[in-house]
TrEMBL record:
UniProt keyword terms in alphabetical order: ATP-binding, Nucleotide-binding, Translocase, Transport
SUPFAM superfamilies to which the protein is assigned, alphabetical: P-loop containing nucleoside triphosphate hydrolases
Protein name in UniProt: Iron complex transport system ATP-binding protein
UniProt keyword Nucleotide-binding present: yes
Amino acid sequence: MQGLLAQGISVRYGARSVLAGLDLPLLRPGEVTVLAGPNAAGKSTLLRAIAQLQPHGGQVLLDGQDLAHVPMRDRARLIGFMPQSLPSSSSLVALESVIAALRAGETLGARQADAAAMAVLDKLGIGALALEPLSALSGGQRQMVSLAQAIVRDPRLLLLDEPTSALDLARQVRLLSELRRLAGEGRIVVAVLHDLALAAQWADRIVLIHGGHTHAEGAPEQVLTPQLLAQVYGVEARVERCSRGRIMVLIDGEHAPG
Ligand SMILES: Nc1ncnc2c1ncn2[C@@H]1O[C@H](COP(=O)(O)OP(=O)(O)OP(=O)(O)O)[C@@H](O)[C@H]1O
């Protein structure tokens, strides 16, 4: 079975249950899936559980393999993980940080690693930042370097936590186009996004996380409905079709229950 299947995912922090037996549909290679939902719904927790960075109940299968039983070194090759933010205190320059991500646990010649890391920075349009210390980069520049770190090993599964939160409009498009391209080459791409306009435009599938479960999932037009947005976010929303058949979500205010 090709794809990512997460079933019965449960996470507790102390006495508090954050994910309560959450199931994801089978996420297929070639698809970009967006995880959305309110603050504190557990989206980052879910990404970490999938990446096996967070103790959890339930099972995560990648192409039929239970990731909990895949050695860490092999997992690092299979999964690219882009966290919500990179530490700003690192003493590395951007290129070194991408080389470090590439070489973790691998034996790779220095020249080969340099060239591969530089190629990724160039592809993302940030080659000019190669020798800048991470600590001197802007939030958006750091986010693009973080993407470079996540994709440099050419992972089968790419997990990204709010990858566009610090990016300007042009870089949002660059990052999301890159995700589309990677998916088109057969990767499985899963990104947490708060921006539902971006989700509507770029996702093949949206999964709405709420109350510790998958509240709804499907194509953007199936999930971004006024009813579901009222239930999950408590907002009054209108959904309009714009040119090119895309949908747009307009928020009119908070939802008055009744
Ligand atoms: N290490 C931790 N220890 C204790 N509680 C935690 C920890 N990490 C997350 N939580 C709690 O788990 C809940 C879910 O957090 P998580 O970061 O997964 O949510 P999220 O959906 O990604 O939120 P946001 O949209 O605000 O980024 C929150 O209530 C948070 O306070």
